[in-house]
Design goal:
By secondary structure, chain A is mostly helical. Chain A has 9 helices and no strands. In chain B, helix 2 crosses helix 6, helix 6 packs antiparallel against helix 7 and helix 7 runs antiparallel to helix 9. Classes of the chains: A mainly alpha, B mainly alpha.
Chain lengths: ~200, ~180
């Protein structure tokens, strides 16, 4: 879909520019934008690498493991269909912690494994279990501690204080995750009631 | 709202102290481990650069042609009803499908209004509390070969909209609007 949209929007943009008599500005816009993408990535390289380096220390020092273990009581509440000590717990917890710390590339493999385990618990059916729904809703509501990339973009575009948004972002992301959790719990109950009647 | 400022200022130093301190206590060669991990940051940025160049060039063309201004004035009525700035509506919708496309639009907003303006701040907060709903759902369900997704989409959209509404409220209070 992105392929067609990209092409369509470029053609549309050029046509509208021609209509507005700005066709001469297109080449400059393209050159400027591509150069900007590169300098943005240079700023991001610094901030991202600091963060991933720091997180590697956290991993090797066992902080991430103990955070994952600390998630277990939360998982008991959110995923009543997953037995205690099941492998799915570990994958779900590590996916959630990685997402929280902004480690997307570590989150996805763990998350996909979690889905596989949840599917097995559901007897390999092609319909999502309540646990799968909860897992994805909470995953998508994305509780994120530090929006590292947003801070990088703000730095690049001359923000006086790029980290000012951390507190507000944290509050907003907490609201969205709580909304996701409440929705999942209610939807699970409703589905159960409907099954019994 | 002052505590949010202290939180913003304090959280990064706090994370540094905890992680570095914990690493020292566990007798880890923290600097070596840091350098090893920093390579992951390089890889992540390296992977998104080509995507970002392609999408930012597209947004650049749309911006210079005036199309983005047309779009914003077209959706103005929606923002008059909801109080949500129409400048941010395209960004919010695109974010549900593609993270890099949303980044390109976010950059465009920073350039037009500045990252510290009301619009820029609201855009930053929304981007830090929302996810690519449709993209994530399709990756996970396709991999697990699950076709009936029940109430997942509804729940994910509900959480996302709650986050956006919260962002709007928080930033408005912050700017005393």
């Amino acid at each position: 879909m992105l392929n067609k949209m990209w092409g369509f929007l470029i053609i549309l943009g050029i046509c509208i520019a021609a209509f507005n008599g700005r066709i001469g500005n297109i080449s400059t816009a393209v050159i400027d934008s591509s150069r900007e993408a590169v300098s943005l990535c240079i700023t991001m390289l610094g901030i991202m690498s600091i963060w991933t380096g720091l997180m590697n220390i956290a991993k090797k020092a066992g902080i991430i493991d103990s955070l994952t273990r600390g998630m277990m009581p939360v998982l008991r509440f959110l995923f009543p269909g997953v037995p205690k000590g099941h492998k799915a717990n570990e994958y779900i917890a590590s996916n959630m912690i990685s997402n929280m710390l902004g480690l997307g590339w570590a989150a996805t493999p763990a998350g996909l494994n979690a889905m596989k385990e949840l599917k097995e618990l559901n007897g390999q059916k092609s319909i999502a279990s309540a646990d799968m729904c909860t897992f994805l809703i909470v995953n998508i509501s994305s509780l994120q501690l530090i929006p590292v990339n947003i801070i990088a973009y703000r730095t690049q575009y001359g923000s006086v204080s790029p980290t000012d948004i951390i507190g507000m972002g944290l509050l907003a992301t907490t609201v969205s995750t709580l909304a996701g959790v409440v929705f999942s719990v209610i939807a699970r109950r409703l589905a159960k009631i409907r099954k019994h009647t | 709202m002052n505590f949010l400022y202290y939180l913003s200022d304090g959280i990064i130093p706090f994370i540094f102290i905890i992680i570095v301190g914990y690493g020292l206590l566990n007798r880890i060669n923290i600097f070596d481990v840091f350098v090893e991990g920093a390579v992951d940051g390089f890889k992540t940025v390296y992977k998104i650069l080509p995507t970002l160049i392609g999408l930012m060039a597209m947004v650049g063309i749309l911006r210079i042609s005036g199309s983005l201004d047309y779009l914003v004035s077209l959706i103005k009525p929606i923002s008059r009803i909801t109080g949500f700035p129409s400048e941010l509506l395209p960004l919010t919708v695109i974010k549900m499908f593609s993270s890099s496309a949303a980044t390109s639009l976010l950059i465009d907003i920073y350039k037009q209004y500045g990252p510290d303006s009301y619009i820029g701040t609201l855009a930053s907060v929304i981007m830090s509390c929302s996810e690519t709903v449709f993209y994530t759902m399709s990756i996970y369900f396709v991999t697990a070969k699950v076709t009936k997704t029940r109430y997942t989409l509804l729940g994910a959209l509900f959480a996302t909209i709650a986050g956006i509404a919260a962002s709007l409220a928080i930033v408005r209070i912050h700017y005393k609007l």
